[in-house]
Structure formats: C-alpha cells, structure tokens
Amino acid sequence: MKRLFSHIDSTVFAMAGLRFLSAGIELTAAILMLVFNDVKKAVTINSLLAIVGPVIFIITMTIGIFHIADQLSYAKLLFIGLGVFFILFGIYK
C-alpha cells in the first residue's frame, strides 16, 4: 500500500484526504436526512454542514499555502488570504 501512494506528494495526499473526509461527512448527512425523514431534522443536519464545509476549506487551503509559501511573494500571499476572506465573507453575509 505504501508503494501505491509513494509517488504522491504528502501535502497533496493530506489535502485530498481532508476532501475525502468532507465527502464522507456530506454523504453521511444525506443518509441521515433520508433516515430521519423529517424536515426539521434535515435542516438541523444541513446547518451543521454549513460549519463543516468552511472548516475543511480553511484547513485544506492552509496546508496548501504553507507548502508553497516559500515560492510566493508576500503580495501573492496577501491576495490569497484576501481571496479566502472574501469567499468566507460571501458565504456568511
């Protein structure tokens, strides 16, 4: 198994792993909505997903930015940070 993933960068592997985790959480939430078959419970589950999505997004972006930070200028890092801020601002406002 180790040889299978030996050619994949560890940073990319961590980022993809977080996305698989996020997808698993989303799939579990969808199944729970179907199992409960109640709109109030479905809305509650969906509101919890509104927290999980941005958290996974921020962690994934942070891992990637830390890995390439030495290759970017401070201005580019600032623009990336502002972009992430505006995405989150747009989600919550």
Automatic annotation (TrEMBL):
Arranged from A to Z, the UniProt key words for this protein are: Membrane, Transmembrane, Transmembrane helix
The UniProt record lists the keyword Transmembrane helix? yes
Q: Which Pfam families match?
A: DUF2619
Parts of the chain that traverse the membrane: 12-36, 48-68, 74-92
Q: Which InterPro entries match?
A: Uncharacterised_YqhV (IPR020390)
Q: What is this protein called?
A: YqhV family protein
